[in-house]
Design a protein that fits this description.
InterPro entries: GPCR_Rhodpsn (IPR000276), GPCR_Rhodpsn_7TM (IPR017452), Olfact_rcpt (IPR000725), OR51/52/56-like (IPR050402). Its main location: membrane. The N and C termini lie far apart (about 65 Å). This protein has eleven helices and three strands.
Length: about 300
Amino acid sequence: MLIANHSSFMAFTLMGIPGLESQHLWLSLPFSSMLLIILIGNGAILFLVATEPTLHTPMYLLLALLMVVDLISSLTLLPKLLCLFWFNDRDIAINACLTQMFFIHGASVVRSALLVVMAYDRFVAVCEPLRYNTILSHSLVGRLGLLALAKGVILVLPMPLLLQRLTFCQVVIPHTYCDHMAVVKMACGHTRPNRIYGLFVILLVVGLDLLLIGYSYGLILQAVIRLSSREATFKALNTCSAHIFVILITYIPALFSSLTHRIGRNIPPHAHILLDNLYLLLPSMLNPIIYGIKMKEIRDKVVKCMSRGTV
């Protein structure tokens, strides 16, 4: 089906997971379970941070911002995905498709920026513990949060804007959501600017953010090595452990997803799609679990709330 320009049709059609269309109903079970876990986990962390004055510290305020971003990303992706799986609702309007693309990719950029800020938070906590509250004031945390948001908007907004200039030869997107590269592949016009800009964003976000995170943890490691007490060393490493786990589950799937799109031509299409969904949903699902397990303050508040509920 040849399309003259993007305004000559009203909607794209999402295929879902190519090759596994007959299994969509069964696949909806783990995805709906993910949605439930994400809503409960992230909602619980947000509720605790909002209602407990003792958690109104820079570390937990940054954690709350991360939970908000995770919720936005998941709620942008999962409702349409589940409608596709449950009701075979495949059509998505052009503007809705571009909006979904903006929020999904924008949330990924903001999440990455927040992880950089949280790495700086851990650096100050370990290397400058006596000046922690002075350096990381609430106003600074707010400004850093706004900077992370601005980074996401500025870097991702050109993606849908550049797509609006293209003509499309196909309207059936072999994906569960409006991924940038998946939509670019539907175009029959000159897509090199779109591909170059998408790669630029990935290199800038993943490359620069990982460099800054690595630099922060390099300084933390130097400080930990200088500690004479084994107990102090363990405490310092434990302070960073939750953040390290979150970094791993955020960046490793994202890097694999990006590489398979560009060089993994022999990888089955359904593996591409499942990996794309995994890198978006896995952090949102596991972040509250990791922080809930690793952070004593959150564990104590959860136990306290549960004991109140059983009284």
